[in-house]
């Protein structure tokens, strides 16, 4: 379940922090992705989003006390996996992903941070690979990865089947998409980011429809968790607010996100918006994101929790 997206409400674990980039980067033919090349970008985004993840994990730590095994499903290069190891010092943490090069990065990070003695990895297609776990999880985390699977309700049931009785499943899905720019940026027609988002939504719907054996599902996550045999226990949203002027790391993230966005949906944009996007991505343009002083990063992610009945 190594997925590739960026900051979006449909993101996938790898970039987003999880490792999957959150820019709605739905690269769904994962066999074509060079994960070793992608890894530094995924790590950088996850590190940028660390304040948001730390808020979410602090909330989970009040809900889940002293878990023995924590499994990060769709972990990417392990940035969030290591945050779990830091948050729960008594837990063993397993980073599970379909991309072996990213798991190599996860192991190296755990080693650097001193977690290697209680940190493991599991490579394989998810959720099927979880059958290789030595024992059920007390806490399982899946960040923006379920929406890449054709039958999301069946995937939730499969994840729940690998929880210990009373164990918690926490899924990060939805929220509010990332905003980087004011409504009127002084070039092109105002409202560019809203229009880009609308095009992304259409592309995402087509991606879901094109998945083999895709099952249409209303995105009511508490209802889906309940239908999967779990008891919904909480919903909470967390904010990443990086106001202007941004750091170099945040500027790099915005630049990369918009570049990847152009690759994915550029052919769907009208000529005016495409020209504006190209100006934003031109390092020599004073109005571009490399130089603008009004750049910011504002996004909200929503986490849903559910427990396996005892």
TrEMBL record:
Question: Record's InterPro entries?
Answer: Methyltransf_25 (IPR041698), SAM-dependent_MTases_sf (IPR029063)
Domain Methyltransferase spans what residues? 70-167
Q: Extract one GO BP annotation from the record.
A: methylation
Q: What molecular function terms (GO) are annotated for this protein?
A: methyltransferase activity
Chain segments carrying region Disordered: 1-31
**What are the alphabetically sorted keywords of the record?**
Methyltransferase, Transferase
Q: Which CDD domains match?
A: AdoMet_MTases
Protein name per its UniProtKB record:
Class I SAM-dependent methyltransferase
């Amino acid at each position: 379940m190594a997925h590739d997206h960026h900051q979006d409400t449909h993101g996938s674990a790898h970039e987003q922090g999880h490792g999957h980039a959150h820019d709605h980067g739905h690269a769904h033919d994962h066999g074509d992705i060079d994960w070793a090349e992608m890894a530094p970008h995924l790590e950088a985004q996850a590190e940028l989003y660390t304040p948001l993840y730390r808020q979410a994990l602090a909330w989970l730590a009040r809900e889940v006390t002293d878990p023995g095994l924590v499994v990060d499903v769709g972990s990417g290069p392990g940035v969030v996996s290591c945050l779990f190891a830091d948050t729960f010092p008594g837990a063993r943490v397993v980073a599970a992903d379909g991309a072996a090069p990213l798991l190599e990065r996860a192991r190296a990070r755990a080693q650097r941070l001193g977690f290697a003695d209680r940190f493991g990895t599991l490579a394989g297609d998810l959720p099927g690979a979880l059958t290789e776990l030595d024992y059920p999880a007390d806490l399982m985390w899946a960040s923006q990865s379920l929406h890449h699977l054709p039958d999301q309700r069946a995937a939730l049931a499969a994840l729940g089947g690998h929880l210990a009785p009373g164990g918690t499943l926490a899924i990060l899905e939805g929220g509010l998409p990332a905003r980087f720019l004011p409504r009127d940026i002084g070039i092109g027609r105002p409202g560019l980011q809203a229009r880009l988002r609308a095009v992304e939504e259409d592309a995402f719907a087509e991606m879901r429809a094109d998945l083999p054996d895709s099952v249409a599902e209303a995105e009511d996550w508490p209802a889906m968790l309940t239908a999967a045999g779990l008891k919904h226990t909480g919903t909470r949203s967390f904010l990443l607010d990086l106001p202007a002027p941004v750091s170099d790391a945040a500027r790099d993230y915005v630049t990369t996100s918009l570049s990847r966005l152009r690759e994915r949906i550029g052919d769907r944009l009208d000529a005016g918006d495409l020209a504006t996007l190209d100006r934003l991505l031109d390092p020599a343009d004073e109005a571009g994101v490399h130089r603008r002083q009004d750049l910011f990063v504002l996004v909200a992610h929503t986490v849903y929790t559910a427990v396996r009945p005892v």
